[in-house]
Amino acid sequence: MPYFVFHLIKGTNGAVREAELKDSFPEYKDAKLYARNLRAELELKDVSDIKIMFADTEDMAEAKLTQNREAPILREWEK
User: Which of 9, 61, 73, 77 could form a disulfide with 55 if both were Cys (CB 3.0 to 4.6 A apart)?
Assistant: First the structure.
């Protein structure tokens, strides 16, 4: 299964609106290096918008990235 590198475009509410595929790689090492280089080119606020996803197809990877996940439950000492 390949590794896909995406640039995430977020909506006004902070949820992922769109995932733009940048490239795909057969090995994690190559995907990691490419993602690091992309992050170095972006402004500091956009650095977290580059993600690597491991999946069978590009569609499956994009679906995993754009699915809405519930917020984690906060314990009392974490508030």
Answer: 61
β-bridge partners, 21: 6
1 contacts 20 by C-beta, under 8 angstroms? no
C-alpha 39/C-alpha 50 separation (Å) is 7
Residue 46's pLDDT is what?
A: 63
Query: What are the backbone angles phi and psi of residue 50, rounded to the nearest 5°?
Result: -105, 120
What pTM did the predictor assign? 0.75
Within its chain, how far is the Cα of 77 from the centroid? 29
∠ CA 6-50-61, nearest 5°, is 35
